[in-house]
């Protein structure tokens, strides 16, 4: 397949590219586009054949539902029973990195919701994404624009790397601002439950309903008796090619432990990557070191996380050792992605 790639530098001057991409959505094609969380791979959410193409391009398991992206807070055409708490969330956090799960209407084909009677909906805070949805006149179903299992792309180069030749159009804009996927909150139950942590934090959601909680299954090792409610959570995710291990605990001990392990790997002739921070990067003695940013700026750390995992692939490291982060605010999302990238291979110090 021939993939057209266009970069939007100025929303007004380059609008013709968004028009082109919108025509592709209308005619049942697939388009990668920027959002504030990560780049998305979109198709007309109401067109079964178009949605199937997303699953094929990504190699995505069919039982992993998609999120529908809208450009308007009125979602009454798509879902039933919108509770007051969901309306308040839309008022407070849309456009933004919050996906709300509600009971779907029949107009949404079951391929989009992967056979579930619920659907996740969000309004992205990105002008190119909003214009694309508006011009296509369709709700756009879009998972992240990566090959299934890989770290999500946060810029156009990474989209091209994964999807060139597999999709109709790649629309580029600026680097994704949030850097991790949206928070997903299930509002079909009371109190609502967070199925995936993201840029809208538990603390922010509790301003709306102080009983909102995080599904306990998502931070622990997948086990037989704790089944996560978000189907996607059971799959290996966000993983670079190298094996990832996280060292969790006291920071000083973490640095000592990582230095010790790195030494062992180097003696075995393995190439090692270290996920460090501004505060610690000088303290490692060997290995390829990438800083995610300052520990005082967790939003910047989140923004750099997936790009760093992919950068280690470019460096051809065999193993990656990562520091851990405080599980507060967006730190919960960072640790969720890191642990999944590591397949829950964690050393406690
Ligand atoms: P991504 O493909 O990276 O955008 O991830 C979409 C995530 O949303 C996956 O983890 C899905 O399992 C989750 N998701 C989407 N729709 C639903 C739903 N109706 N119920 C539960 N989780 C959902
Ligand atoms: Mg994804």
UniProtKB/TrEMBL annotation:
E.C. number(s) listed in UniProt: 2.7.7.87
Annotated keywords: ATP-binding, Cytoplasm, Nucleotide-binding, Nucleotidyltransferase, Transferase, tRNA processing
InterPro entries: DHBP_synth_RibB-like_a/b_dom, Sua5-like_dom, Sua5/YwlC_C, Sua5_C, T(6)A37_SUA5, TC-AMP_synthase_SUA5
Binding-site positions, ATP: 60, 64, 118, 144, 152, 196, 238
Every YrdC-like domain range: 15-200
Residues reported to bind L-threonine: 37, 69, 122, 142, 182
GO cellular component: a single term: cytoplasm
Gene3D superfamilies xref list: DHBP synthase (3.90.870.10), Threonylcarbamoyl-AMP synthase, C-terminal domain (3.40.50.11030)
Reaction equations catalysed: L-threonine + hydrogencarbonate + ATP = L-threonylcarbamoyladenylate + diphosphate + H2O
Cell compartments where the protein resides: Cytoplasm
Coiled coil ranges: none
Broad EC category: transferase
Gene Ontology terms, MF aspect: ATP binding; double-stranded RNA binding; L-threonylcarbamoyladenylate synthase; tRNA binding
Gene Ontology BP, a term: tRNA processing
Alphabetical list of PROSITE patterns matching this protein: YRDC
Superkingdom: Bacteria
Sequence similarity: Belongs to the SUA5 family.
Designated name of the protein: Threonylcarbamoyl-AMP synthase
């Amino acid at each position: 397949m021939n993939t057209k790639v266009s970069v939007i530098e100025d929303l007004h001057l380059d609008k013709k590219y968004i028009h082109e991409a919108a025509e592709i959505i209308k005619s049942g094609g697939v388009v990668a586009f920027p959002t504030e969380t990560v780049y998305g791979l979109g198709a007309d959410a109401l067109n079964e054949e178009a949605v199937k193409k997303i699953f094929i391009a990504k190699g995505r398991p069919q039982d992993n539902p998609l999120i529908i992206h809208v450009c308007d807070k009125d979602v009454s055409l798509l879902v039933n029973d919108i509770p007051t708490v969901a309306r308040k969330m839309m008022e407070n956090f849309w456009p933004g990195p919050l996906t709300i799960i509600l009971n779907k209407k029949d107009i949404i084909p079951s391929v989009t919701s992967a056979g579930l009677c619920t659907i996740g909906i969000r309004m992205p805070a990105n002008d190119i994404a909003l214009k694309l949805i508006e011009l296509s006149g369709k709700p756009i179903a879009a998972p992240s624009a990566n090959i299934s299992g890989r770290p999500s792309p946060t810029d156009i180069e990474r989209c091209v790397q994964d999807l060139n030749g597999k999709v109709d159009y790649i629309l580029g804009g600026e680097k994704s601002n949030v850097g991790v996927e949206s928070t997903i909150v299930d509002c079909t139950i009371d109190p609502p439950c967070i199925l995936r942590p993201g840029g809208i934090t538990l603390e922010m959601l509790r301003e709306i309903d102080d009983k909102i909680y995080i599904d306990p299954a998502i931070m622990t090792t997948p086990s037989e008796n704790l089944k996560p409610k978000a189907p996607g959570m059971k799959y290996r995710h966000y993983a670079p090619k190298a094996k990832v291990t996280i060292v969790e605990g006291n920071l000083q001990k973490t640095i000592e432990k990582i230095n010790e392990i790195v030494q062992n790997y180097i003696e075995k002739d393995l190439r090692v990557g270290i996920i460090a921070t501004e505060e610690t990067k000088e303290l490692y003695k060997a290995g390829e070191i990438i800083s995610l940013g300052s520990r005082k700026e967790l939003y910047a750390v989140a923004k750099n996380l997936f790009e760093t995992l992919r950068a280690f692939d470019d460096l051809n490291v065999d193993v990656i050792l990562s520091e851990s982060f405080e599980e507060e605010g967006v730190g919960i999302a960072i640790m969720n992605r890191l642990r999944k990238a590591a397949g829950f291979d964690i050393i406690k110090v």
